[in-house]
Amino acid sequence: MPRRKFRNSQRFESLNERSFQEYISNQPAPQTSRSELLRLIRGGEDTYLELKVKLSNPDKIAKGIVALANTDGGTMIFGVSDQLRVEGVRNAEGVQEELARICREEIFPPVLPLLDCISFDNGRRIVALDIEGKRRPYRTRDGRFYLRFGAEKREVAREELAVWLDEIRPLVYENIPLPNVGENDFDDTILWSFAGAFDDDFLNNDLYQTSTFLKKDLLLAIGNADDFMPTVAAVLLFGKNEKVAEILPHTSVTLARYSGENGNAQVIEKIVLSGNLLSLYESSQRFIQRYCDLLREKPKKAGNKNAPIQARSSYHLYSVREAVANALIHRDLALRDIPTRILIYDNAIEIINPRRTNGFVPPASRAIRYGITQRLNPQIASIFTKREYGTNVPRGGLPMLLRQSRLFSGQKVEVYTTNDEFKLKIYGA
User: Fold this and answer.
1) Beta strands per DSSP E along 62-112
2) CATH architecture classification, 2-156
């Protein structure tokens, strides 16, 4: 696609960015020539180029930027008429400032704009905004998603949204708004006990509403005064179990107990849990405790190897809690076809979680052993790990889990990634 290739060969950068580039490289930053820009304009609008006479409606501009960003980037030029004539803009500096504001405040996640102002011999100036879609999906402040098709932008319909999000597999899946969820779909017991733990007077305040609290206090919902669209994170953290199972069925957890030391053995019991994260965390631990001993300290006496019935394996309590918590809060929610599994064998507990292999291994998979993480779902992790939420997650993260499990059982925890799965195998004592 020649137009696409040409557009990427030119970068419209702000004066500040140019100065920084010149500073670190000791060479002048590349400038976009008028002839190159005119060549773009003469070709007319397409999927990656939008032309504007002026900046008059910030809402429409925000939609246009979102559409370009979601379509893998593009360029928006101000000061060009529908007849492809260079009319120029009156206040180029003001246009640049307003564009920077729109990219920063009217779009989520914020877009880092590359801006350039081109002057012509007749005194006219045009402003070019180059957009890169590195953090898709992007949406407007009111929760709308747009894509660009040729010279037109189109809103992504709600019924198409899930399919599109699956295709781009976003890292910010937890921020996706869910339009078919209302205030009555939230578990007030979890939500208000969480809020009340921070504010003793909170429960006595009759003015608080679920929608207001989620939007303004926790930043887990969007919409104006009449609209309420909670995010995936809000539903997973505070939604009623039946609602989570209905609209986010791929967030369930499969647990199984095998009669041997691997998945080829006979299945003794297998269940599928669904619901909010607090419910999944507590139910998963109850299932594990049916078949394993979770202890704070290593047992002093080893079991009798010649006994007719093999003793239950013992595991470090806090390591198992940390492993289950990590599985729930750091799973790649955009991978719908790979479930979270907790598999219990005679000698080990294996936890398998969806996690994109591409871009994660091998450096990142080694770095996480030392607490250097590429955190998925930071909002979910922030609330889930707070004691006020009710999970009582141990401190120390994966480094603590690896160390304490090795000290407890004498065997190293296996950590590996393959085929979009992150696997953790903890051996028992």
Assistant:
1) 74-78, 107-108
2) 2-Layer Sandwich (3.30)
